[in-house]
Amino acid sequence: MNAHSEINATDLAYHLHSQTNPQALSREGAYVVVKGDGTHVIDENGKRYIDAMAGLWCASLGFSNERLGRAAATQYEELGYYHSFYGRTNPKAASLSKKLVELSGMPGGKAFFVTSGSEANETMVKLAWLYHASRGKPTKRKIIARDRAFHGSTIVAGSMCGLEMMHREFGLPLPGFIHTLCPNNYRVKLPGESEAEFVARLASELERMILREGPDTIAAFIAEPVIAGGGIIPPPAGYFEAVQKVLVKYDILCLDDEVVCGFGRTGNWFGCETVGMTPDMMSLAKGITSSYFPLAAVVVSPRILEAVERYNEGGTSFGHGFTNAAHPVGAAVAAETIAIYEELDIVTHVRKIGALLQHVLTDISKGSPIVGNVRGVGLMYGVELVEDPSTGTPFAPARQIGAHLAASAYQHGLVVRAMRDTVGFCPPLIIDERDVEEIGSKMEKALRETEKAVQAKSI
Question: What pTM value is reported for the model?
Answer without folding.
Answer: 0.96
